Amino acid sequence: MKIPNVLYRNNRILLKELTKTDFKLRYQGSVLGYLWALLRPLMMFAILYVVFAKLLRLGGDIPHYPVYLLTGTTLWSFFTECTGQGIQAIVQRGDLLRKISFPKYIVVVSTTFTALINLAINLVVVVIFALINGVEPSLSWLLVPLSILELYALSLGISFLLGAINVKYRDVVSIWDVLIQALFYAVPIIYPIAMVANSSGLAAKVILLNPIAQAIQDVRYNLITTETITTWSYLENPVLKVLPIILVVVLLTVAALYFRRKSKFFAEEV
Amino acid sequence: MKRKIGTRREVRTESEYAIEVEHLSKSFILPTERAWGLKQAIFNRLRGVKGYREQRVLNNISFNIRKGEFVGIVGRNGSGKSTLLKILAGIYYPEKGEVTINGSLVPFIELGVGFNPELTGRENVYLNGALLGFSNKEMDEMYEEIWKFAELEQFQDQKLKNYSSGMQVRLAFSIAIRARGDILILDEVLAVGDAAFQQKCNDYFASLKGNQTVILVTHSMENVRKFCDRAIMIEGGKIVKEGEPDVIAKEYMKLFS
Description:
- The complex is a heterodimer.
- By secondary structure, chain A is mainly alpha-helical.
- Chain A has helices spanning 9-26, 35-55, 65-92, 94-97, 105-132, 144-166, 171-186, 193-199, 201-208, 211-223, 231-234, 238-263, 266-269.
- Chain A is built from 13 helices and no strands.
- Chain A is globular.
- The mean pLDDT of chain A is 89.
- Chain B has a domain at 7-44 and 52-104 and 216-255: P-loop containing nucleotide triphosphate hydrolases (Rossmann fold, 3-Layer(aba) Sandwich), CATH 3.40.50.
- Chain B has eight helices and ten strands.
- Chain B has helices at 37-47, 81-89, 121-131, 136-150, 165-176, 195-208, 221-227, 245-255; strands at 7-11, 17-31, 52-66, 70-74, 96-102, 105-108, 183-187, 213-217, 230-235, 238-243.
- A six-stranded mixed beta sheet of chain B has the order 6-7-8-4-9-10, sandwiched between helices. A four-stranded mixed beta sheet of chain B has the order 1-5-2-3, covered by helices on one side.
- In chain B, helix 6 links the parallel strand 7 (183-187) and strand 8 (213-217).
- Chain B starts with 6 loop residues before the first strand and ends with a helix.
- The mean pLDDT of chain B is 87.
- The A-B interface holds A 9-10, 13-14, 16-18, 21, 24-25, 28-29, 95-102, 169-171, 264-265, 267-268 and B 3, 5, 28-29, 36-39, 41, 86, 89-93, 107, 109-110, 113-114, 116, 118-119, 123, 126-127, 129-131, 133-136.
C-alpha cells in the first residue's frame, strides 16, 4: 500500500494553498480580522482571571499566576480550536472531495495548521506578558515547542479519528462539544494542580495522566516557574511518567490508520 | 459493514493503451428513509432494518482507450457516466474489477473546483491552480494569460460573489485549460460562455484532438461528431454500443424518439 507522502510536490502545494485560504476565510468580513485570533484567548483569560484569581482567590501562592493562567488558556484555546475545526474538516470540504482526487489527510492537516498559526501568534503575546510580569528568560524556553508538538499530535489524532466517524454520524460534533466542556475542568487550567494535590494525591496523579494536563504543566514548568508540578516530577512509577506521551503516540497511529482506511469512501459518503 | 474494493492502478508503461477498464462494477450504499445520525443507526440495528439499500450504478463494464484517442461517452441522465468518470479519476473506488491508468490524469468533473465566493478572483485563481497541481510560481507565469483568455482582466480584485455565473465559468475554464496531463477527463464542460467564448473553447478542443488522450462526457451529439474518434454509449450501467461517433450519435437520438 502506498504511504501518503507529505513531500510529494502536488500535496505540498495543495496543503499550503488550503492553509492560506482557510486562514483568510476564518476572519473574512469581520472588522478586526486577524486580531480576533489574539483577542479571543485574551478575553477568555480576562474573564477567568477576574472570576478565579480575584473573586475566588485561587493560585494565590503561585509565582506569576496571571502568566500561569494565560499560558493555560492559550494552550487550551489551541486544543479546542484545533480539534473543533479538524473534526469538521472533511465534512466542510466535501465539495472538494467529491470533485478531485487527493490524499484526504491534507484537508485535516490544513485546517489544523490554521490553529497552529494562531497559537504561534498567541505565544508571542504570552512571552511579552511573561517578560512584563518579571519572568526571567531561560534556556528551558527552548523546550516549549516539544510540548506544543505533543499537543498538536494529540489534536491531530482526535481530528483524524472523530473526523472520519463524523462523515457518517454527524452527532460526533455535538458529543465532542459537550465532552470538551467536561474536559476543561479535568485539566488544571483555572485551578492550580497543587490545590488538588493537597487534598488528594491520587486525584492529582490521575489528572496528570491526561496528556493535555501533562503538556500544559510542562510548558508552565519550562516557561514560567520550576515550582510547577509536572507529570514527570509528581508520579513515581517510570511507566506512568511517560504514559501520557505513549497515549498520544498510540492514539495518533490508530487514528491515522483508521482515517486512511475510511478515507476511500469519504467522497461517496460525505 | 465490510465493503469490497476493486483495484485502480496508475502506471507508466509503453503500452498502447492509456486507459484499461476490466469488468468494472460499482454500487452505492443508499440510506433508506432517514438513516442518518447515531439514533437512527441504533434504532435500525435494534429493529433489524438494514437502513440502506445497494444501488448498482455500473455493471461489469470493460473497455480500452488508446493513447491519443478522443473518446466520447454518451448516455441519458443517471446512466452511470459520471460515476464511471469519477472512478477513472480516482475519486470513487471501484467495487469490482480493475482500472489501469497509464500516465498522468487531469480530471474536470466540474469547472472551478474549490472556488470560494468570499475570495477575490486573484485568490481563487491561485487556489484553483493549486488544486490542479500548479505551484505559486507556475501560476505567476500563467496569471496574465488566464485573465486575458477569460476576458475578465478588470475584475481581478473583485470578490467572486460579485461575478456573474457566466464570468465564473469563463474564469474557471481559462485556468482549467492550462492543466497539462497525458489524459484529460471532461464532464460536460464544453458549453461555456457566450457565442464568442464558445468559439475559443471549440478551438481549444480542436487543438487537443490527436495530441492528447481525452475522454469527453457530453449530451451534445454535435460535439461528439466534431471531436471524437470513437464513442461509447452507456445505458443502465452497461455499455450498450461502442463505435463510430456518427453511429453512436444516431443511436443516442433513438433513445429519445
